[in-house]
Structures are given as C-alpha cells and as structure tokens.
Write a structure and sequence with these properties.
Layout lengths: L8 H5 L11 E3 L4 E7 L5 E9 L2 E7 L6 H14 L7 H15 L10 H6 L10 H9 L6 H15 L13 H5 L3 H6 L7 H13 L14 H9 L6 H10 L10 H10 L8 H8 L6 H9 L12
Length: 308
C-alpha cells in the first residue's frame, strides 16, 4: 500500500487514543495494527497493517474465499482509517512558514512544530465510519479514559459481529437501536450517555440521519459544526472533536486535559483563558486545532511515551 512521504505508521496510530479502544489492536513492538472491518455486504474480515519496504503491508483474512472487490473495499477502509488520502501539503507549507517566523523571534506564542514537520505528523487515526467515531466520541465525554475503554469494549463484546478469528467488530447502528435505554445504563455503563447513544443509533439505523454524508469536503465547516452540535449529547468539545476526525481543524476541541496540558507546556502559573489559547493558534487558520494537538501530544512520541 503506497503512503505519502514522509510517513510514520506509529505517528498515525498513536496520534490520539483511538488505537487503545476496541476493536483496534496495536502491537507497538512489531508496529502491527489490526482490527475487524465490516464490508458493505455485511461480511466481517480481519485486517492487518504493518510497515514494509516502500509502504505498508496489508492483509485481510476472512472465513472462506475473499473476492478481489472485497479485498479492495477492505483496503480502502484501511486507507481511510490512516487518513492516507488527506492532503497535508497546505498545512506543512504554512507550518514551515510560521516556524521560520517563530525561530526569528517574531512569533513568541507560536508552537514549536519542528518535530512534526521532520517526521510527517498530522494524520489522525479514525474509524472506518463516522458512526463509530461519533459513538466513541460520546464515550469520551465527562469521564476517565478507563471508563471510555470499558464502554467501548462492552459495546463490541456484546453487540459486535464476530470476525474470522473470533474478534468482534464495532457494532452496527441497527444492533444498538434494537436495545432499550436501560441496556446502555446497566450493561454498557454509559450513564447519562445512555439516551444519547440510543437516539443516535435509532436515527442512523432508520435512515433519518446520514452521518457518512458529513465527510463531504464541500460542506462548509460552520455548517458541519452546526449539524454536529444538533446531535443529542454533542456539546462544543464533542462536536469539535468529531469535526477534527472529519479533517476539519478550524476549532480546538478544548477539554480539561488539553487546558491543563497547555498551562504546563507554556509554563503559566494560571490556566490560560480559551480566548488566549485561540489567539496562540490563530495564525494557523483552518489548521489551528491540528497545530494545538501536535503541540500537546509531542512528548507521546519520545522513547518513553507517557499515555495511554
């Protein structure tokens, strides 16, 4: 599988916490990423990606023979998950220009993104569907990461379809839509998110809500954000986070972790206001959120990454 240059699989996989959530599996020592994928036919295959000479090695396993069209579909889903077709050229050009300004002392508050430019960082791991990204985003709101992992794992274990090796795929919206609200409270431990998950599943399963249409690049970002905030349970953070996974970085998706992280990184005695934070990244324009995210996660890619 062909990749852009420069490209580092580990940077994409660990770009945020999705790789730590079911049904993803990541062997960091071998740098092998795997997960089950559901094809348009409903068939579940086990996909595996690894670094190889000149690109990525891709393998899809299935029960029975896997047709050529199915293999191409699985590969296309894998490319989408790694954001391989996303053009980072405009971001890299702007970042290089702003880095020169920062180095000359004319951009005191600009982030130091030299590491990102050198290693080709900026692609964010995402799910095969907007549906999965939306559900997982809901499961990150107002809770610990450990609870997020529990909720997502239980959804897959309870409602996910089995793959060829027994691994469970992320469940389809129809599977969630068929369950009562108490199931999400009692079995999934979703708490206040229970009615939001059920409503989202029912809207998608019935066809009233087309989440995949939100991928359209022609959709203006303000309109996209308005559609996301109209979803039950999606406040400013959740909407902006999901927009980020859709390749829109105009907004910062600030939460308690990023605010505290920025205070520490910038050596501030007090937590900076959101207005101040927005001013720091304003020169990046439509890439402001990406620039902020690359700054706050830079130390994840050293010799001893601190999280998860």
């Amino acid at each position: 599988m062909r990749v852009p240059d420069p490209f580092d699989l580990d940077l994409v996989v660990r770009s945020h916490g999705w790789y730590d959530l079911a049904p993803w599996r990541y062997d960091a020592d071998r740098r092998v990423l795997s997960r089950p994928l559901r094809l348009a036919s409903g068939r579940v295959v086990a996909a595996e990606l690894a670094e190889g000479p000149g690109g990525l090695l891709f393998r899809a396993l299935a029960t029975g023979r896997l047709g050529a069209a199915e293999a191409r579909e699985a590969q296309a889903q894998a490319r989408h998950c790694l954001a391989l077709d996303e053009d980072l050229g405009p971001f890299r050009a702007l970042a290089a220009e702003l880095e020169a300004r920062r180095a000359s002392g004319r951009g005191r508050d600009l982030p130091d993104l030299r590491w990102a430019l050198a290693r080709g960082a900026g692609r964010l791991l995402r799910s095969p569907t907007v549906w999965e990204d939306a559900v997982k985003t809901l499961c990150t709101t107002n809770c610990s990461w450990s609870l997020t992992r529990v909720m997502v794992a239980r959804l897959c274990e309870t409602l996910g379809e089995p793959g060829p090796g027994g691994e469970r795929a992320f469940p389809a919206p129809e599977a969630l839509a068929a369950r009562p609200e108490r199931f999400f409270r009692d079995s999934i431990r979703a708490g206040y998110r229970a009615p939001f998950l059920r409503t989202l599943a029912r809207q998608v399963a019935s066809g009233r809500l087309d989440l995949e249409a939100l991928r359209r690049p022609a959709l203006p970002t303000p309109e996209l954000l308005e559609r996301l905030t109209d979803l039950d349970g999606f406040g400013p953070y959740a909407s902006e986070h999901l927009a980020r996974l859709l390749g829109r970085h105009d907004f910062l998706a600030l939460d308690s972790w990023t605010r505290q992280r920025l205070r520490t990184l910038r050596g501030r005695r007090r937590q900076p206001t959101d207005r101040a934070v927005r001013r720091w990244y304003a020169p990046y324009g439509p890439f402001a959120g990406l620039a902020m995210w690359l700054e706050v996660t830079a130390d994840w890619f050293g010799a001893a990454p601190p999280w998860p």
